[in-house]
Specification:
globular; 22 helices; mainly alpha; UbiA_sf
Length: 475
C-alpha cells in the first residue's frame, strides 16, 4: 500500500515536470508549431483537482511529449519518450495518416485525367458502338424472319435503350479501353514504345514512354477499369454473352503478357476480339427479345439462340469479314512497328519472315475479307439485276474500253436510279466500294514489299473508312 501510494505520488507531478523540461530544452520554432502547447500552458497552472493533467496524465503528456521532446537530450525526457511513443503514434497520427491517404487517392488521378483518357484510345469508341448497333440490328432482323414470331413494330431503338443492352455496350467499351491501357503499360515497361516528342498524335500517343504519366497511376487506373468491367458484366443478359465479355477481358490481359510474342496468335487474338463484338451484342439482344424485356416474347422452343440460322445469317458473314479485315490491318501495323518489335523480342510476321512475306499475307487476308463482305450482297443483288434485264428494254452505256463487252440493260436513267436504291443493290455497292479500297491499299503495300512504312500507315488509316463501308453494307 505504501509502495502504491509512493508510485502514485511520484507519477502525479510528471506532466508538470515534463512540460517545464520541454519548455526549457525545446527550440522556439518547435514550440511555435505545436498544436497542444496552448492547452498545456493553461492546464499546467491550474490546481490538481481542476486540471485534466492530473486526471489522465499519460494521455495528455504523451501527446505533448511527442512534439516537445524531439529537440531534448535529457535522460528523463528520452525515457518518457520511449514510454509514451507507442500510445502517441496510435492516438495522434492514425487519423492524420488515414485522412491524408484518402485525400491522395481521390486526387492522384485529377492531374492526369487527360493522359489516362487518351490512353483509352477514344477514337475506337465510335467503331465499337457501330459494332454493337449492327449486332443488335442483325439480331432483330433474324428475330423478324423466324416463322415463330409474328410481325412486330420497330424494335431496334427500344432495344438499344434497354438497360441490359446499355450494360453490354459499356462492357464492350471497357474491354477495348482496358486492352489499350494494358498494352501501353507493358510496351512502355518492356521498351517497345520509345519516347518521342515528335509523335504525339492519337495513334502514337504513349504518355508512359514519353514520361507524362507514372506506372503506378496507370496500373491503379487500369485495375479500377477492370473492376468496373467485371461489375458491368454481371448485368449482361444471357449466359453466353456474359461469358464472351469475361473471356474478352481475360484475353486482353493474356494477349499483352503471354500471346503478344507469339507469331500469328497475336494477330488472330486481336481479330477475334473485334469480330465477336457484334456477336455478343446480337446474342444479348436475342436474349432480351426472348425474355419479353421490351414487350416481346416467344415460345420456349426458341429461347435458345438459333445457331443454324446464325450460320447462314448476315451476322456470320460479318464475323468472317471483320476477322479477316482486322487480321490484315494488324499485320500492316506489325510492318510499321517492325524495328521496335525486333528490339523488344516480339517475333511478329515481318520480324520472323520479313516484310515482303508480311505484305503478301496481309493482301491475302484482305482478299478473304472482300469475298466475305461481298458474297451475301452479291447473292441478293444478282436476281434483281437479272429481273431488271428481262423486264425492260436495253439502254447501252459506253464504259471506256469495255464498251464492246458491257452494256447496262435498263429502260432509262430513272430505272437505273430505282434499281440502285433497292436494299440489295445498295448493299452490294457499299460492299464492293469498301472491299475495293481495302484491296487497293493492301496491294500498294504489297508492291513495295512492305518497305514503305508511310504507305503502310496510309493503308492502316484508310482501312477504318473501308470498315465503315463494309458495315453499312450489312444494314
Amino acid at each position: 500500500m505504501t509502495q502504491l501510494r509512493y508510485k502514485t505520488h511520484h507519477l502525479r507531478p510528471m506532466p508538470r515536470r515534463i512540460f517545464l523540461l520541454a519548455v526549457f530544452t525545446a527550440s522556439d520554432e518547435s514550440l511555435h508549431n505545436m498544436q497542444l502547447v496552448d492547452a498545456f500552458a493553461r492546464n499546467s497552472l491550474r490546481t490538481k483537482a481542476a486540471s485534466p493533467l492530473w486526471v489522465d496524465p499519460y494521455r495528455t503528456s504523451g501527446e505533448f511529449l511527442h512534439f516537445a521532446s524531439v529537440h531534448s537530450s535529457s535522460p528523463r525526457t528520452s525515457k518518457a519518450k520511449l514510454f509514451y511513443s507507442e500510445s502517441t503514434n496510435n492516438q495522434v497520427h492514425t487519423t492524420t495518416r488515414q485522412s491524408s491517404s484518402s485525400v491522395d487517392k481521390d486526387n492522384e488521378f485529377q492531374p492526369h485525367l487527360r493522359q489516362l483518357f487518351l490512353m483509352m484510345r477514344p477514337i475506337n469508341f465510335p467503331i465499337v458502338t457501330l459494332f454493337h448497333v449492327l449486332g443488335v440490328h442483325l439480331s432483330v432482323e433474324l428475330w423478324k424472319s423466324t416463322a415463330i414470331n409474328p410481325p412486330t413494330p420497330p424494335l431496334l431503338l427500344p432495344l438499344l435503350k434497354h438497360p441490359s443492352m446499355l450494360m453490354v455496350l459499356l462492357s464492350l467499351l471497357l474491354v477495348t479501353s482496358t486492352s489499350m491501357i494494358t498494352n501501353d503499360y507493358y510496351d512502355a515497361r518492356n521498351g517497345v514504345d520509345i519516347s518521342s516528342s515528335e509523335q504525339r498524335d492519337a495513334v502514337h500517343y504513349h504518355p508512359l514512354a514519353q514520361g507524362l504519366l507514372s506506372f503506378s497511376i496507370t496500373k491503379t487506373f487500369d485495375s479500377y477499369l477492370y473492376a468496373i468491367l467485371l461489375l458491368s458484366s454481371a448485368f449482361v443478359p444471357g449466359v453466353l454473352p456474359r461469358l464472351m465479355v469475361i473471356s474478352g477481358a481475360i484475353v486482353t490481359y493474356l494477349y499483352t503478357v503471354h500471346l503478344k510474342p507469339k507469331t500469328w496468335i497475336k494477330n488472330w487474338s486481336c481479330a477475334a476480339l473485334v469480330a465477336i463484338s457484334p456477336v455478343t451484342s446480337g446474342l444479348a439482344a436475342w436474349h432480351v427479345l426472348c425474355g419479353g424485356g421490351i414487350g416481346t416474347a416467344c415460345a420456349a422452343s426458341s429461347t435458345a439462340p438459333p445457331f443454324r440460322l446464325l450460320l447462314r445469317s448476315p451476322l456470320a458473314f460479318l464475323v468472317v469479314a471483320l476477322f479477316a479485315g482486322i487480321t490484315s490491318r494488324e499485320i500492316l501495323m506489325d510492318i510499321t512497328d517492325c524495328e521496335s518489335d525486333a528490339r523488344a523480342g516480339i517475333r511478329t510476321i515481318p520480324v520472323k519472315y520479313g516484310r515482303d512475306v508480311a505484305a503478301k499475307v496481309a493482301l491475302g487476308w484482305s482478299c478473304l475479307s472482300s469475298v466475305a463482305s461481298c458474297a451475301l450482297p452479291l447473292a441478293q443483288g444478282l436476281p434483281l439485276i437479272k429481273a431488271g434485264i428481262g423486264r425492260e428494254s436495253t439502254v447501252a452505256f459506253s464504259l471506256g474500253v469495255f464498251r464492246d463487252f458491257i452494256s447496262v440493260p435498263l429502260a432509262s436513267l430513272k430505272s437505273l436510279l430505282t434499281l440502285l436504291m433497292t436494299p440489295a443493290i445498295r448493299r452490294l455497292s457499299l460492299s464492293v466500294i469498301g472491299s475495293t479500297l481495302l484491296l487497293y491499299r493492301a496491294y500498294s503495300v504489297f508492291k513495295t514489299k512492305g518497305e514503305d512504312t508511310e504507305l503502310a500507315e496510309l493503308a492502316i488509316g484508310s482501312s477504318l473508312f473501308s470498315v465503315l463501308l463494309v458495315l453499312a453494307s450489312f444494314v
